[in-house]
Amino acid sequence: MEYRLAIIGFGNVGQGFAEILRDHGHRLLEQFGVRFRIVGVTDPLKGSIHDPAGFDPDDLLDAVRLAGNLGGIDAADRGWDGTEMARLSSADVVVELSYTDLETGEPATGHIRAALEAGKHVVTTNKGPVALHYAELSEMARERGLEIGVEGTVMSGTPTVLNGMNLLRAAGIKRVQGILNGTCNYILTRMEEGSTYDDALQEAQDNGYAEADPTGDVEGFDAAGKVVILANLLMSVPIGMDDVDRTGISGLTPADISAAQGAGERWKLIGTLEPADDGVVASVRPERVPLSHPLASVGGATNAVTYSTELLGDVTLIGPGAGRLETGYSVLVDLLEIHRTSV
Ligand code: HSE
Question: Is the pTM of this model over 0.85?
């Protein structure tokens, strides 16, 4: 079976996904009997190309590496923006990877609406539309018999969302607690090792974990967006960004870090979600945890989530929360889930 893909946003994640198709396409065909053909790519900086015959992922990657854009690639159609690509392309699935905006969810939400209206499945790693408009978008998809894959919105390719929805919800999720922002966890880890806040943040930016504007990371908005997504998907409680009691890490001083260390504790930016009589209680805040806490040993840019359940007790998933291949992998997982649910 073949799936035709249109990719909106060809930055790190889109290129990471193209690398996965380039390097593992044959194995995916053998293992799952599926082939993924990229028929369209649009990116505000790199250009826009579409061709029903499809593109070789290696050609796309080479063009971006050598020329910085897709201009040299033969294509039937050029110049479509994200909405036009979603609407007009010959794709079965629109892969929405444009930048995250947690205030409006745009332009990604418009792209997703256009894709669904045109009868196309959607896969996205973009937190904006999922944190702000999931109820509307999932209803649009359901009415049309389409799927929206959002695995990469929380902890990149570490299987957090689908595991939670498909395998843990029946166990009765009583609480979710997680280290959901790699930048903050990296900064806190480096400060424990003696680095300054500014140096550690610069390293996180150099390593590519931090968002374009790191305010979203260090003030807890990114983690809050993930808490909202988990509430909406796992607890079916529609909350918004304003419902999360949020404090970031920018107020933590070296003295705070040393004091915790002296007491055998460690600061972590922890997102928490707990059912309450009138919905859920959601928070993101720096917390001092004892070294025996399941999340205390999660260092650097690594993320983790603990699902506390009635039937299984605590289940903790630890893994990457960002990265080119790591987030690209989540796109593949969602595509295979679309394949699994439609055969
Ligand atoms: N900036 C985010 C982080 C990337 O540091 O975790 C993934 O959402």
Answer: yes
The finding on whether 182 has its CB within 6 A of some atom of ligand 1 is: yes
Confidence class for position 223, pLDDT limits 50, 70, 90: very high
326 lines ligand 1 (CB under 6 A): no
| Residue range 81-106: mean pLDDT, rounded | 96
- Using most ligand atoms within 8 A of CB, pick from 211, 226, 229 the residue to mutate for ligand 1: 211
The answer, yes or no, to whether any atom of ligand 1 lies below 6 A from the CB of 185, is no
Is 90 exceeded by the pLDDT of residue 319?
yes
The Å distance, Cα 226 to ligand 1 centre, comes to 10
Which fold does the domain 161-320 belong to in CATH? Dihydrodipicolinate Reductase; domain 2 (3.30.360)
C-beta of residue 136 within 8 angstroms of C-beta of residue 108: no
Of 151, 188, 222, the one to substitute when testing ligand 1's pocket (max ligand atoms within 8 A of C-beta) is 222
The residue count of the chain comes to 343
> Where along the chain do its domains lie?
2-157+324-342, 161-320
Residue 64, judged by CB atoms within 10 A of its CB (0-12, 13-18, 19+), counts as buried
Instruction: Fold for 2-157+324-342, please state it.
Output: Rossmann fold (3.40.50)
Q: Using CA positions, which residue lies closest to atom 8 of ligand 1?
A: 322
Do 2-157+324-342 and 161-320 share a fold? Answer: no
Residue 212: predicted pLDDT: 74
The per-residue pLDDT for 213 is 84
Ligand 1 atom index nearest CA of 156:
7
Higher pLDDT, 113 or 99: 113
Q: Which atom of ligand 1 is nearest to the CA of 181?
A: 6
